[in-house]
Amino acid sequence: MNIQALAEVAEKKMSLSTGGVKDFRETHLELFKKKGLAPFDVNSYKYTNLSSFFEGLDYTPYEPDDSQIEKYQDERFTNIMFVDGVLQNQKINIPGLNLTGLEENFPLLYPELKETHGVSHLHHSLLATGIVLEVAKNTIIEKPIRILNLITKSGLNCATVFIKINSNSKVSILEENTDQSVSHGLINETYLQVEQGASLEHVQLTHAGATGLTHTSTYAYVKKDATYRSVILNLSGKLNRQNVKMELLESGAHGESYNLYFTSGSEQSDLNTCIEHKAADTTSNQIAKGILDEDSKGIFTGKIHIHPHAQRVAAAQLNKNLLLSKKAQVFSEPQLEIFADDVKCSHGSTTGQLSDDEVFYFQARGIPADKARTLLAQAFGIEIVLKIQNTLLKQRAQEFVMQALKNKFHLGGAK
Amino acid sequence: MKIEDKLSSEYKYGFVTDIETEEFPKGLSEEIVRMISAKKNEPQWLLEYRLKAYRHWLTLTHPDWQYCKFPQINFQDIYYYSKPKSKKDVYKSLDDVDSELLETFEKLGINLTEQKRLMGVAVDAVFDSVSVGTTHKEELEKFGVIFCSIQEAVEKYPELVKKYLGTVVPYSDNYYAALNGAVFSDGSFVYIPKGVKCPLDLSTYFRINAKESGQFERTLIIADEGSYVNYLEGCTAPQRDENQLHAAIVELITLDNAEIKYSTVQNWYAGDKEGKGGIYNFVTKRGHCKGVNSKISWTQVEAGSAITWKYPSCVLIGEGSQGSFYSVALTNNYMQADTGTKMIHIGKNTKSTIISKGISAEKSQNVYRGLVKIMPSATGARNYSQCDSMLIGDQCAANTFPTIDVKNNTAIVEHEATTSKISADQIFYLQSRGFSAEKAISLIVNGFCKDVFKTLPLEFSVEAVKLIEMKLENSVG
């Protein structure tokens, strides 16, 4: 699908919007027509060819299918569901939690135009549905919120989620992307605003079918003394591109970014993170891990940017990759940009295979090699899952990670 | 007392030698390339190489990915050839060299006259576009070691030069490699024959003197099977308000079981406190470890230049070959450094080590940029990288951009980096034991750089420590 065809899709959907949203979409459609899929920063997409992302996709209008909703509901969570990019008509009845549509809240907080990728222009021009989720002040929401993106049909889908956590509130949110094994493209954008003293735990779990293409962007704006923890688990999908931008705007803001990706076959996972320390006394911690098998590719680009005058900042970054096959490839590009002097920054990157010595150690204690390799791979991956603090979310993530480890990789022996 | 207030080191080598020079007209054209070639009595094949490089250069545009900012260079406003005027075109021996020149090098601490020369180091001294003298030639010849200027090598050993020149850094490699390919002037040529451990350390000293000129030297070192050489490089330039371009190429080749250790102490003029003047040091340095178990080691102490933009690299082709890179880059005032290395692992069981230490003070920018690439054929490859940055002052910047591409699962690649400011606790601790703040900082910085300094040959190590001390002199509190 070329730029022209994609633009036509957006034009066809334009009538779905009115007012500010429509203007916004039209602006971005024009920019998309002009600039295409070009990123604002050439290097950020050098390993992922986006034109292949849209190949072979048709856009077919969605027809609601209520039977799907029931099946995917999970009582343990407060469920919000998008099916094929369309929000299901759901009412939420939880004190302190307010769910509205995009139209009522427009214009919203978007990054500057000059920092907008071509894919974002496309996303904005297709923007038909989305939600704004607001947590009132001084509220602790016990039940985790689950936002599910379910894809049932082949096609290109977009979803937008805005989340605002007002001061001194606390909530855990799970965003889950999955499909019914259809080839599709999903462009997701999530914007998070964590106000003073608030705390947000945000887990993104993608377990799409073998042909699923997912492009997710997360923008987090963290205010004074607030905490934002992002845990991203990309367990399958033909191509996963994940952009994470975290801005620590005021002193005391704390950001955490934990990522785990599994790839096998010819899958590709491209993780691009940027943590901006814009104020003094902000801290961040980042760990990204990947397990790669067969012909798959893993990319990690992680920037830590410490702005001038952002003194007394501590930022740590670690990228670890485990290669299980001869043909798997890893590209790791950590970047530290530091413009203040009273800082503590570190980053590390390792790439290697399972240690024969460790497997031997297990064997010497009566545990067969295949079991030993599975245990070692589990131990490698589970570190990220254990960073999740909400028990329910942790359980759910653990189930998926364990299952993926079992089904996805050949840990039985030398491959 | 503030650290920044005291940073005001003087540049010791900023004097100009008043010597009559012979220059070609300013600017770059096919005519100039032909003139340089004719001046050096070069054979046809070399002229053709230059012309090919020049024509290729014309098709290129200046790269813009680097992290340093500088005004567009006007390549037509540079003298591409400048040579101290002398009765003879070629210095046959040191007796032909004018006394001013010898004095210049003496002032720089480089003694070219045989009787006074430092024991154990052979020196090739390059002044603007020509080599003025090489010491110890006869002694080296006994061992079959060739150490002379490139120009002389082209005359005397054309086969060797033709066989290796441009094989490591072809003119098509990058913008400045093409420029150098077209207009390169003197540089050193070293050939170490089979099985010879070079009895002396070899050294080249580069001096830019002429105004508005550029230095485009070319160094080619070949270590034949089982040989070893320790090579040192030093550089200085006068203090001037205009920026001057230094775009050199260094090519190293090691065959089976050979080893080259290449050390640089770079102290080009870095510009004044306001960032005016200084050398643009845009150099391409690369080594091919062609043979089995061959080794190349780069050590650099980058303390000068307004802008340093270079990545000494190793291509590890031979099985079991090893590359290492040790670097200290110190920037102050408005200096900018974008430096690092590339390690390309092609052969089996190849190993590489990268240790980089960056120190930025005042308003300077210090960037480490590195690439570690493990090709699918590099089974059992191993890399270890460590890059640490230290910040002195709150207006400087330290950036780290490593790139790691692994295409073989048996490879083990490790990278770590830290950035922090100079520790107030450590300064206090030393002060409480009677060291002045200045001495304390100097000790801490030297300790920070120790991993690199210890790989330098003794004389250089002493010089490097002094250089860092001098740069930070009056600087810290």
Biggest beta sheet attributes of chain B? 11 strands, mixed
What proportion of the residues of chain A is helical, as a percent range?
10-25%
Number of domains of chain B: 2
Number of separate structural domains of chain A: 1
Description:
The complex is a heterodimer of chains A (415) and B (477). Chain A is α/β, with parallel strands linked by helices and 415 residues long. Chain A has one domain. Helices cover 21% and strands 41% of the residues of chain A. Chain A contains seven helices and 19 strands. Chain A has helices at 3-13, 19-35, 66-72, 118-126, 356-364, 369-385, 391-408; strands at 78-83, 86-87, 97-101, 130-135, 145-151, 155-165, 170-179, 184-194, 199-207, 212-222, 227-236, 239-248, 254-263, 268-277, 283-292, 297-306, 313-323, 329-338, 343-352. Chain A has a ten-stranded mixed sheet, with helices on one face. Chain A has a nine-stranded mixed sheet with strand order 3-4-6-8-10-12-14-16-18, covered by helices on one side. The longest helix of chain A has 18 residues, at 391-408. The radius of gyration of chain A is 21 Å and the shape is globular. The model of chain A has no long low-confidence stretch (mean pLDDT 86). Chain B is α/β, with parallel strands linked by helices and 477 residues long. Chain B folds into two domains: 14-425, no CATH class; 426-477, no CATH class. Chain B has helices spanning 30-39, 44-59, 99-107, 137-141, 150-156, 158-164, 175-183, 424-432, 437-448, 450-453, 458-471; strands at residues 21-23, 82-84, 121-127, 130-134, 146-149, 188-192, 201-207, 218-223, 228-236, 243-246, 249-254, 259-266, 278-289, 295-302, 307-310, 313-316, 322-331, 336-345, 351-361, 365-374, 382-392, 397-406, 412-421. In chain B, the strands form three sheets. In chain B, strands 5, 6, 8, 10, 11, 13, 15, 16, 18, 20 and 22 form an eleven-stranded mixed sheet that branches. In chain B, strands 4-3-7-9-12-14-17-19-21-23 form a ten-stranded mixed sheet. In chain B, strands 1-2 form a two-stranded antiparallel sheet. Chain B is globular. Residues 1-8 of chain B have low confidence and may be disordered. At the A-B interface, strand 18 and strand 19 of A face strand 21, strand 22 and strand 23 of B.
